[in-house]
Amino acid sequence: MAPGDSPEIPASQLTSSQLTSIANGAAAAGPFSSRQLFRIDEALTAADRETGLTFSVYVGGLEEPLRGSAETMLDALPAPEDSVLLAVSPNQRALEIVTGQRAAKRIPDRACELAGMSMRAAFQGGDLAGGIVTGLRMLADRAGAARSERR
């Protein structure tokens, strides 16, 4: 590895239910400490609970085209139309935020752009976990409370 290069970060997809088991010591692989995993888990759980949407985070390499790769991951989720995926590839210095069809009605592209800008600022400061937590909170705030009628 050349000076200034970041270490290769193993890929992992994180959802609130998966994060809890990882944070409790099941498989603490990747760039996050247990404390950071708990922070991300809290943000994921709060975003899911408050909005009624399903938020997921993927950290790892993305295939080209990056956006298409993130959209494929979103489509593989159990309820893609109500899901939001934050795909972060530190080694590629890439971030994609993709929303399902119904989620996009509550989180417009401009809100995703603003969350992405805040996340990138944290990443540039070396705070990967903090950037993810910030993005999750911003997107959840924009989505607002869960709606009783979701059609």
TrEMBL record:
Protein name: DUF5130 domain-containing protein
Lineage: Bacteria, Bacillati, Actinomycetota, Actinomycetes, Cryptosporangiales
Species: Cryptosporangium arvum DSM 44712
One Pfam family recorded for the sequence: DUF5130
Listed InterPro entries: DUF5130
